[in-house]
Amino acid sequence: MKWAGEPIFYSRTLLLKISSVFKRKKRGNSNLKIEENILETIRQTCEENGVHLVSAALRGGSTRQRLEIFIDSENGVTHENCQNVSHALDEKFENTDFIDAIQHIDVSSPGADSPLLFSWQYKKHTGRTLEGVLKNGTAFKGKILESDDVAVTIEPEVDKKTLKRHQKPEPIPLPFDEIKKAQIVLNFK
């Protein structure tokens, strides 16, 4: 059994010359938006290193920005995966006009308690407890029995008093296009 409490994390300090790669979201707002060409470079770098880009975001003040990148794969994420992506991005951005304010590129796994965003993420959690909410507002919780590209099937958690002796709850297929939010329930028993 794999231990999955905290995300794997790798950080590397960068001193990059950058000025025009980021745009302000709204006038007067200090939040910065990553331009699409930078996101595409990050996406491609992740693929080249055998992982998927889950998300990327800028954090920090206007003079000390940190680029946070979350990666995942069907087989999980290792420290080496994070390090390889970080080094590859360092090389790709080394001679570009990325931003002066970037101090760090942090690459990590999203962590076991992060929302599941892709169908392949459900497959690797078969046998674990999933909870979430459908787009119609219905909450669900149950053990993942199986998953494909269209839906995840769970065995719902039900009150044992409502079931007859030796009766199991009926599996419920949950189409991905109906799931608003879902995440794995961590169990430390």
Descriptive report:
This protein has 189 residues and is of the alpha+beta class. The chain is built from 3 helices and 11 strands, in the order βββαββαβαβββββ. It has a 5-stranded antiparallel sheet with strand order 10-9-8-7-11. It has a 4-stranded mixed sheet with strand order 1-6-5-4, with helices on one face. β2 and β3 form a beta hairpin. The protein is elongated. It starts with 8 loop residues before the first strand and ends in a 5-residue tail after the last strand.
Break the fold down into its secondary structure elements and pairings.
Blueprint: E1 9-13, E2 22-24, E3 32-34, H1 36-48, E4 52-59, E5 65-72, H2 79-93, E6 102-108, H3 119-123, E7 129-134, E8 139-147, E9 151-156, E10 172-175, E11 179-184
Helix pairs in contact: 1-2
